Structure formats: C-alpha cells, structure tokens
Amino acid sequence: MEEKRSVDFSRGPNTVCFTCGGFRKVSEPRLYMIQATEDTRAGMTLGEWRDCPDCRAGGLLPGIRPPV
Q1: Confidence band, pLDDT 50/70/90 cuts, at residue 12
Q2: Beta-carbon neighbour count of residue 58 at 10 Å?
Q3: Cβ neighbours of residue 63 closer than 8 Å, sequence gap 6 or more
Q4: What is the sign, positive or negative, of the torsion defined by CA atoms of 3, 9, 12, 14?
C-alpha cells in the first residue's frame, strides 16, 4: 500500500496573490467633496491604499494548489 503524505503548503513554491497581484496593497475608493470654485462643488473619487486582506500584505499565498 502507498503511504499518504501530508502536504505542507507553508514550504515549497508559493502563488502570487490573486487579489492584489503581488502588489501587497489594494485600492479602496472613497468619495470626497471638493470645491473647485466659489459656486461649484463636485464629488471626486480617490483611491486610498490599504493592506491586502488575503495575503496580509505579503504578496504571496502559501503553496500551489492545482485544480481538482
């Protein structure tokens, strides 16, 4: 009989994070109200950067898991 081996995903090759693409940050859009002139107010969306929640700002996910 063959022995079943437990795979240790913390070692070996890693996968680039699919959420941030290895950049370690994701953009979180925020709406800001700005005043361009005295009588004109406009909304503007700006991106604020935050740490990636999936890879915890590491850029990599442990192990390569092929599709079943």
Answers
A1: low
A2: 15
A3: 7, 9, 10, 12, 13, 14, 15
A4: positive
In whole angstroms, how far apart are CA 63 and each of 15, 39, 40, 53?
A: 6, 56, 53, 17
9 burial via Cβ count (<10 Å: 0-12, 13-18, 19+):
middle
Other CB atoms within a 10 A radius of the CB of residue 17 amount to 20
- Is the pTM higher than 0.70? no
Cβ proximity of 41 and 48 under 8 Å: no
Write out pLDDT tens, residues 40-49. 667 677 788 9
Q: Where are the domains of the chain?
A: 11-60
